[in-house]
Amino acid sequence: MGSVLEEFYAELERRRLVALWRVVRGLMPSQPQSRFLPHLWRWKDLRALATSAAELVVVDRAAERRVLGLENPGVPGSCAATPTLWAAVQILLPGEVAPAHRHSQGAVRFILQGEGAYTTVEGEKHVMRRGDLVLTPSWLWHDHGNVGQEPTIWFDGLDIPLVATLDASFFEQFHEHAQPAGEAPNHRWSYPWTETAPALMRRGEGDATPFDDLALQYVNGSGGPVLPTLACWVQRLRPGVYTRAHRHVSSAVYVIFEGSGFSVLGGERFGWGPGDMFAVPPWTWHEHANPSSEREAILFSIQDTPVLQALGLYREEAYEAHDGRQPVTREFAG
Ligand code: GTQ
Ligand code: FE2
Question: What is the SS3 assignment for 20?
């Protein structure tokens, strides 16, 4: 029956063709229209559910990692916190070894709780203590063990969604459960908190930035980001600090290491405390505040900035109205 035009569109579909004028606004919006939403995951829930996972699931070749990923509520089924970033909590019990493997996805771990765990990266053993950052760059063998007395919980950040979009995933299991491991005297793939904390505390008034207060990037030997796809930062919000808002096309996931405060993400106020994690999607206004009169707040974050920069797509914008602070229209209830 249909009109000539309808028949034309049907023929396009049969020939696997698409008429740009019917899809262009969605494909090429005037600015990013992310389906990803700002969201916060509470430490209380993360720790409780990780602990349940530890009771219910053993770590072996069937379930190689006991990991709970933060899935963005704006994109159910995405297995992603932001368009490019996988963020997760991983728990390992005393005596357990998560088997050795390697993959094209790059990983970072930021340790939150427990003593006595280590990650072996290419045969080098890196201890994991609270506040340490341990890297597993693309395609390097890695296994995790816990030789301590208590469960260890850490934050995982990976570029899984990016690699999935690019269909560039490779994965291999090591021929043994664990790698033969030696010491790692030169910390090639780790940044101990014992070095990070003093560097962060040495920052003062003169180093403050309007959007992040006192922030430090973890850098590689050449001063670049820790991974080609992912940058890591740690920042101190001094007591009473209320940063200005900005937005950028890069996305991020934050982990609260110490202190409490709130962030305003796309007009919504997210209160946070130790262990909470939140996602900032691309092109979302965000600012952070530490209303405490005496306590510092310390935030760790992963950012996909290197990807956007490498591709010539990076943009950022400062929020100019209202003294650089967003009006709060909602309070996050989750
Ligand atoms: O610990 O090797 O969160 O391979 C996701 C994939 C952790 C890991 C994750 C992984 C790992
Ligand atoms: Fe892995």
Answer: helix
